[in-house]
Amino acid sequence: MTEISIVGLGLMGTALAGTLLKAGHEVTVWNRTDSKTEPLVAMGARRAANLAEAVRPGSLVIVCVLDYDTVHGLLGQTELRGVTLVNLTSGRPEEARRTAEWAEARGAGYLDGGVMAVPQMIGAPGALILYSGSREVFDRFAEPLGQLAEARFVDTDPGLAPLLDMAMLTGMYGQIAGITQGFALVRSAGLPLRDFASTLLVPWLRAMGELAHRWAEEVDAGQWGTDVANLGVNKVALDSIALAMREQGIEGNLLAPFKHLVDKRVADGHQDQGLQSLVEELHPGR
Ligand SMILES: NC(=O)c1ccc[n+]([C@@H]2O[C@H](COP(=O)([O-])OP(=O)(O)OC[C@H]3O[C@@H](n4cnc5c(N)ncnc54)[C@H](OP(=O)(O)O)[C@@H]3O)[C@@H](O)[C@H]2O)c1
Questions:
Q1: What is the pLDDT averaged over residues 272-279?
Q2: What share of the chain is helix, strand, coil (3-state, %, to 5)?
């Protein structure tokens, strides 16, 4: 069995360590706040007395802390030659690229990862971790990585897993923004949200989410026309929603930046195009 260390025992690091222990690995744990090692030691983990004890040559070190500055703050003073680092800390593509170069220059193997799961999902079906960086590291540690979540290698560019992670989070936060605004509207009518969510909103979002397949194909092909609903019609709908929010006494409109984009595209004469064409306003493509 591989010698595995987990550095960082927040909610996610604790879930990662617990899952590897349950799978039968020998796991060494280290955390700034030492008391967080206790439940894992009770499960059979070895507590490292200091960080260097957890980051030993030949070991697989999975790091999961707040951010990349913390990763560098912790590992900057530690010998890394012969260590394999799998960094499951969330961050930006550029941070991942710089960290990969930095680790490799110091003699460590480096794989970056984006965790697409909450701690409760780790080790269970449905959890996904995107990896990018060293293919050799990914292949060598396929077994323990596969025990944490579905392990998907996306590219040798270390920045790609964080980029895709952020793109997925962007979709999620956009959806949450819309849900929040929709909830406010239903609340303003004095209705409970439970029935609205289960009988109306969730089925609707599932059905509409499917449109992303079609839009993705159209954007890839540079097709901006539509037989669904053009930007002119969507502009009327978004104007009307903004007005209704005000009439219902709702503070703010989280859709405002999106509405601004639709307004601009229509003002530029593209009212016959579909919603998928808005991506052109954000990036022209490569
Ligand atoms: N939780 C999730 O659902 C989730 C999902 C996907 C990705 N992630 C990512 O996983 C990473 C960890 O998230 P988490 O939920 O486990 O966060 P968390 O519970 O807040 O834990 C943060 C960890 O970072 C450590 N830390 C923070 N500042 C530090 C410093 N200056 N020096 C040393 N250690 C420091 C903390 O140590 P102490 O215990 O000593 O404070 C703790 O181990 C983040 O990058 C997050 O984006 C989390």
A1: 97
A2: 55, 15, 30
